[in-house]
Amino acid sequence: MDSFGPWGIIPPLLTIVLAFITKDVIVSLFLGIFSGALIVGHGNPLSALICLTDLISDNLADGWNIRIFLFCALLGSLVGLLTKTGAAGSFGRWASSKLKNSRGSQLLAFFFGIIIFIDDYFNSLTVGTIMRPVCDKTKVPRAKLAYILDSTAAPVCIIAPISSWVVTVMSIVRDASGFRDAAGNYTLGINEFQFFIRSIPYNLYALGTLLMVALVILLRRDFGPMKASEEYALKTGKMYNEEKYGASSGNLDEDVVSRAKPFDMLFPIIVLIATAILFFPLTTWFGAIDGESVTSFAQAVRSMSIGDAFNNTDSSKALMYAIVITVAVTYIYYLCRRLLTLPESSEALRNGIKSMVPALVILAMAWAIGSLIKTPKSEGGLGLGYYLSSLVSGGSFPIGILPAIMFAFSALIAFSTGTSWGTFSIMIPIAMPIATALASSRNYGDAAAINIVLITIAAVVGGAVFGDHASPISDTTILSSTGAGVPHLEHVATQMPYALFVAASAFISFVVGGLLMNLAVCWLVMLACMAAGIAFLPKIIRS
After folding, report:
1. What confidence score (pLDDT) does residue 119 get?
2. What's the pLDDT band for 324 if we cut at 50, 70, 90?
3. Quick one: which of 31, 145, 425, 477 could link to 484 by a disulfide (CB 3.0–4.6 Å)?
């Protein structure tokens, strides 16, 4: 057995419980990691401490992780420059003069979140930087902004035709048993890209989350802790509740400078977006130069389409290059505009990075506990995902409830580990052969067989996206609270009821729609559940 069985549930469960009891995410994560290391070390505290230290350092030594870590730190320095010059406040005052109410600023944040779909990290941090001053001026609590950021990160990336998420899912689907036969032919008669496109309407959680955000904004149907945050912001004028949830990350006091104009805020954001989009394909083309079959940049460009270059990029490298260039260009631009002196610029950069330290510590520890939980026992981890997935593959489930079961287990794995990509890699290879084998054993026609597999894999993907969206230890959840400048626990507490409601609606829809294997029925049930929830939850769940 490549896991510690149910013992693997202890670290994430302990972390989540302690976080809400102590209101200290860092200490809770430390104790969660330590408990897992104790299990791996068979109760030896010295071995556990060594394991904990190695976990954190090894995860920071990973190329992808350290680039995202530095991207966040440098984005903090950019926010420091924006704040010190007064550019953020200037843009906020200008935008709030155009957007007369909180609904307008929320819709603008929602719109930005949808159109910036290339990368979830980029989405959360960039849109947060743009919209934070606007939402502050229109009295939108930071928790609501964080919810919009988080809800338009993973849920948008997983349905966008061009994103790193799509490539990951397609590559796992392509290699899964049952998708192709021994000769390499597609058993369903469609390739992995066609399969992905056709699975989008079945991704009830991702699409339902976007619908939920739109309904909450347009109908003002907030409930639970989010409603309390709304009332707190209106009553006190404070955009987050530091007394209840602790300090926020990436938050700086603004020094208003009358010379700053709204464009001084937009300029670095435009540079950041433009350079990021530019480096997404450039990174792939440069990486294709191997000195043998591809010896020049021109040859690399000719070797693949721009769509393939976007899909196969290393987004951590593209984002890192983009933020370095953006900070350098913005630094020079503000000096030329005489918005800052050299000493003030250096102070702004330092203060910006310092404001991000709590988020960076949380991010590093979240990576460590995620790695410990998902790594198999044979490689020094707890193997929780393997244990949970074995519960699925070891049972004989009726095909009608297979999508609902796959959704539930994927959601549990992703929520416990904080990673959707890890859940994809565990659950899709399990779900694909089960779905194709069950369809084959019942002698369904081609259309029905494809329908069964589509709804099952979409359920896996939707469950994994729920975990990425809602888990307190998910990096996207952490970065959304950072981008919005809200205490992490306030973001988790206010978002959780909304995410759980959409997940419950999706689960019910998969149960009913799965029994009939009908997409229309899935959506009728989903819409009915969401309509009932929007109508009654604000009355049932008080702030």
Report:
1. 61
2. very high
3. 145
Q: Please state, in angstroms and rounded to a whole number, the distance separating the CA atoms of residues 462 and 252.
A: 36
Q: How far apart are CA 114 and CA 152, in angstroms?
A: 6
| CA–CA dist 449, 187 (Å, integer) | 10
- 59: three-class secondary structure by DSSP: helix
Closest to 372 in 3D by CA, of 30, 24, 27, 95: 30
212 Cβ neighbours under 8 A, 6+ residues apart: 151, 498, 501, 502, 530
User: In sequence order, which ranges of 254-305 are alpha helices (DSSP H)?
Assistant: 262-288, 297-303
- What's the mean pLDDT in 380-385? 79
- Using alpha carbons, select from 51, 90, 46, 112 the residue that is nearest to residue 372: 51
Q: Percentage of the chain with pLDDT > 70?
A: 88
Task: State pLDDT tens for residues 216-251.
Answer: 999 998 999 999 999 998 888 888 888 888 777 656
DSSP code for 178:
T
The span from the CA of 137 to the CA of 59, in Å, is 39
Q: Are 109 and 135 in contact (CB under 8 A)?
A: yes
Kindly tell me the burial class for residue 332, based on how many C-beta atoms sit within 10 Å of its own C-beta (0-12, 13-18, 19 or more): exposed
How many Å from the N-terminal Cα to the C-terminal Cα in the chain?
Answer: 45
Partners of 312 in the beta sheet? Answer: none
Q: Which residues pair with 180 in a beta bridge?
A: 177, 186
Calpha distance 331→350 (Å, rounded): 13
Written as six digits, the tokens of 12 are 């994430």
- Tokens for 496, please give them: 């959780």
Among 240, 232, 253, 156, residue whose Cα is nearest residue 481: 240
Separation of alpha carbons 431 and 402, rounded Å: 9
**Mean pLDDT of all residues belonging to the chain:** 82
What Å distances lie between residue 105 and 95, 139, 146, 366, CA to CA? Answer: 8, 9, 13, 31
Torsion, Cα of 468, 469, 471, 476 (10° steps): 70
Rounded to the nearest angstrom, the gap between the alpha carbon of residue 134 and the centroid of all alpha carbons in its chain is: 23
Report the pLDDT averaged over residues 507-518: 87
Asked whether the beta carbons of 489 and 245 are under 8 A apart, the reply is: yes
Phi, psi of 180 (to 5 degrees): -130, 150
The interaxial angle of helices 262-288 and 315-336, nearest 10 deg, is: 140
List all residues 6 or more positions away from 228 whose beta carbon is below 8 Å from its beta carbon: 494, 543
Q: What is the pLDDT of residues 84-120, one digit of tens each?
A: 887 766 776 777 677 778 888 899 889 888 877 656 7
Q: So what's the pLDDT on residue 327?
A: 93
Angstrom distance (rounded) from CA 83 to CA 88: 6
User: pTM for the whole thing?
Assistant: 0.71
Choose the weakest-confidence range: 197-201, 409-413, 431-435, 444-448.
444-448
